[in-house]
Amino acid sequence: MRMKLLTHNLLRSRVKGAAKGYPLAIHATTVETKEADFNPTFIVRMLDRIQWPVVVQAASQVGVSEDKVPQTVPNDPESDQEFLKAAHHLLLEIEVIEGELECPDTGRAFPIKRGIPNMLLNEDEV
Amino acid sequence: MSRPEYTAPPEIFYNAEEARKYTSNTRMIQIQRELTERCLELLALPEDTPGFLLDIGCGSGLSGETISDHGHHWVGFDISGDMLEVAAERECGGDLIHQDMGQGVPFQPGSFDGVISVSALQWLCNQDKSSHNPIKRLKHFFTTLYGAMAHGARAVFQFYPDSPEQQMQLVTQQAMKCGFTGGIVIDYPNSTRAKKIFLCLFAGVVGSVPAGKSDMMRDTASQSTVAYTRADRRRQARRKKRAGVKSREWMMKKKESRRKKYGENSVKRDSKFSGRKRPTRF
Question: How far apart are CA B99 and CA B85, in angstroms?
């Protein structure tokens, strides 16, 4: 519904001239936490696709205290319930409601309103 | 009924009023649901494993609700802000992004297990702004989409091509150029009302990863390989370095063969001097 950190982790900007357009910096003004169903299989599946350092960075940008964020992925995440719970909380329960995303290459800002990031580009940016 | 694509660009056509109408009309909801069900069926995702899907042109989240019902997570994008507002109000379960599909799919490589799109692709074939070039936009869309899909993932687009021949061909052609395989699936082709057109695209090889060999298979594997043949040995012998021309070895061989042919006296007898190396001279 609202932009979760999982979505942020996979999102990139497509502005002309942005070579990578990733990771987008979060400048959040409103952040909410909402409980979601814990599904360990899904988290393990997604761990292959996401960049954990980006999650750590994003967590600090939305103001999650550092002691709640595992700094690295353990070698065997399937059996590490504690890590999976922490990952679940970070990826699926933290929602950015208002703020901005910033493209790292071009500095272009994408506003987030009511939890919906606006990634639309102007004609000259395509 | 005239086609909505002719009336106005999607971000203008789906305004607040249209968005509200779209989501309160039970018939619309029913159709969207059925179409999404069929799309998911065509995606053929593995049962019981929660996947991560992309919904292109998610609108007010009607299709997303069906995806959530199947236990998958999803992210959707749409060009109409008003439709997205409705989706956000209805708490349809996925993350929403405001984006134009012609501007590319804004996701990292290999993000999605599958992609669905219900009644959206035909909008991409229209030129709504002077700067729009439908072919370029289609190409950009499909290339970025291919990148965002996991290897072997499928994308299913239900759409209403305006001219079956031309538009269907245009869209399929552009998708194939971007590396997709797949094609058009038509449900109930002979009925005007129930006829539905789906574009099914596969990114990369569709199939599971072959299993690694186990110890059981090792014994049979060694038997199945062909042993050294005589031809191999002959070939290897030939590969042995030949004696250099005018070397002592070569000369002796020549003398020997001449002796055999013309008798003992046909060549000078061998001595310690035959074939010796001579001092270099100016």
Answer: 14
